[in-house]
Structures are given as C-alpha cells and as structure tokens.
Amino acid sequence: MLKALSVTAAATLLAASLSFADQAPSKVVIPVDRTASTDAKQMYTSYCAPCHGTDGKGHGPVAASLKSQPTDLTVIQKNNQGKFPDAHVAAILQFGAEVPAHGTATMPIWGPILGSMNRANVQDKQLRISNLTRYLQSIQVK
Ligand code: HEC
Fold first, then answer.
1. Rounded mean pLDDT, 96-102
2. Ligand 1 centre from 16 Cα, in Å?
3. Does 3 reside within a domain?
C-alpha cells in the first residue's frame, strides 16, 4: 500500500513542478509549464487535469496514487443548492482546500505558484484565479 504522499509545490521563476513522492520507488512529477493567464482551458489542462481529470470528475492519471481523492469539480454547484460559489472556489485556489481537522491537504496551494508566473504584473495572479474559477463554473452539471 502507498504511504502518505507528500505533495510539494516548488515554484521557481520559469519552471515550477509539483512532486508527489511517497516512500520510493514511485514518484509523480507534474511540470508546471508556462501558460497564458487568459487561457483557462490551457491552465486547467496543465495544472488541474492530472488529478481532477480532463472532464473534472476527479479521475486524472495521478489520482490513484494520491491519499485523498481529487474532488469531482463538476458538482460544486449542484452541491451548493444550485449556486456556484465563486468566491469560495477562488479562495481555495488562492489559499488551498479546506481539509478535515486531522487531515492533510493533498490539493496544492495554487496562489504562490500562479503568482510566480508573472511577478512584473500584480494583476496576473488574480486574472489566472478568476479565469480558472470561471472555467470551473462552465463545466458544472445542471
Ligand atoms: C495533486 C493533485 C491535485 C491537483 C494538481 C489539483 N487538485 Fe484540486 N484537489 C485535489 C484534492 C485531493 C482535493 C480534495 C481536498 C484535499 O484532499 O486536499 C482537491 C480539491 C479541490 C477543490 C475543492 C472542491 C470543493 O468542493 O471543496 C477545488 C475547487 C479544486 N481542487 C480545484 C483545482 C484546480 C482549479 C486545480 C488546478 C489549478 C487543481 N484543483 C489541481 C487534488 C489536486
């Protein structure tokens, strides 16, 4: 069985990567490539789909090796009385997911990573977060 995975997000100026290492031998690295802040689908595909899946339902290629299963992102609205909680989602992207009192978040904290992509433009991180939030809103089931 897999032991607890440690998820580290290493953001450097140009290339950032997330490593998922359990006690060897398995180690999954998701490269955090440069993306356009205006292209939410490109950001989603690069940064989120490895865990949450291309369709958002939580079955990305690395999901099986994680301790906590990635949330089905298409039912956020359905689970919130039919109203998409955009401020809540944006806060999760900025500061990380809420976890049970005794749990450890597996979901990376994206704020610092997204913020590292264009430090010259202070608006860039918020633009990325709001475009990703809008993208998630667009994939909600009715
Ligand atoms: C390392 C795998 C991984 C990656 C990459 C990842 N997530 Fe997650 N995400 C999770 C896990 C696991 C959870 C469930 C909470 C936890 O255990 O941390 C989660 C939870 C969430 C939630 C909370 C849903 C809710 O209803 O509370 C949102 C929103 C979310 N992720 C969006 C994203 C977005 C957008 C991206 C890309 C920028 C992303 N995630 C990338 C693993 C990941």
1. 77
2. 18
3. no
Q: Which residue's alpha carbon is nearest to atom 6 within ligand 1?
A: 48
pLDDT mean across residues, the chain? 82
State which residues form the domain around 61.
Answer: 37-138
Residue 47 has pLDDT above 80, yes or no: yes
> CA separation (Å) from 97 to 33, 36, 120?
22, 24, 27
Residue 37's Cβ-count burial label (10 Å; 0-12, 13-18, 19+) is buried
Residues within a 6 A CB radius of ligand 1: 7, 47-48, 50-52, 66, 68, 70-71, 73, 76, 89, 92-93, 97, 99, 105-108, 110, 132, 136
Does 65 map to a domain?
yes
Q: Tokens standing for 116?
A: 């590292």
Q: What is the pLDDT of residue 27?
A: 58
Q: Which atom of ligand 1 is nearest to the CA of 69?
A: 12
Prediction pTM value: 0.85
